[in-house]
Amino acid sequence: METNRLFLRKFNINDAVSFFELNNDWEVIKYTGDKAFASVEAAANFIENYTHYRKYGYGRWAVCLKENGEFIGFCGLKFHPKNNITEVGFRFYKKYWNQGFATESATSCIAYGFNQLHLNKIYAHTHIKNIASQKVLEKCGLQFVKQITYDGHPAKLYCIKDETKNLY
């Protein structure tokens, strides 16, 4: 998938160092509930065992700059089989915050979800204090649904519906 400035692709083993560094920045994972990887090998193991592409046909994708191929974060769709919903999510290196990359990539992923995967709705959640991510979701057209508890933390649930389909 491509946008004006970015291309999105499946993770590969060459992303292990970048993925390790991304998830080892406390400010980046502060609101995610995720823990830092213990090592580059642990990040590589995560990538090697990431089954969403095979199981569901989609997942989170590495986000890279078109100009030089640099890995700057990830964005994509994640299926939650327990709740039978798909969520959009993103994470970027701090040096790429506030430059529109999250909005650009998430908008593209949402369009992919509706146009290629024929999803009716796409959800997202953010920690209640993660105002920056909430603003990104709203720029992408998601609407606040309700406050929830996610992994034991207060969160906000958002949703966007494919307006080309009659959903009642």
Distinctive features:
4-stranded antiparallel β-sheet; alpha+beta; 6 helices; Aminopeptidase; 3-stranded antiparallel β-sheet; 168 residues
Structure description:
With 168 residues, the chain is of the alpha+beta class. It has a domain at 6-122: Aminopeptidase (3-Layer(aba) Sandwich), CATH 3.40.630. Helices cover 30% and strands 31% of the residues. It has six helices and seven strands. A four-stranded antiparallel β-sheet has the order 1-2-3-4, with helices on both faces. Strands 5-7-6 form a three-stranded antiparallel β-sheet. α1 crosses α3 (40-48). The model has no long low-confidence stretch (mean pLDDT 94).
Q: Could you give a quick summary of the protein structure above?
A:
The protein is of the alpha+beta class.
- What gross morphology would you assign? globular
Total of DSSP H or I helical runs spanning 4+ residues: 6
Helix percent band: 25-40%
Classify the beta-strand content into a percent band.
25-35%
CATH class of one domain: Alpha Beta
CATH homologous superfamily (4th level) name of one domain: Gcn5-related N-acetyltransferase (GNAT)
Spatial order of the strands in the main sheet?
1-2-3-4
N-C termini distance: 31 Å
Estimate the mean pLDDT confidence.
Answer: 94
Number of strands: 7
Describe the secondary-structure layout:
Layout: E1 6-9, H1 16-23, H2 26-29, H3 40-48, H4 52-56, E2 60-65, E3 71-80, E4 85-92, H5 101-115, E5 121-127, H6 131-139, E6 143-150, E7 153-161
Antiparallel strand pairs: 1-2, 2-3, 3-4, 5-7, 6-7
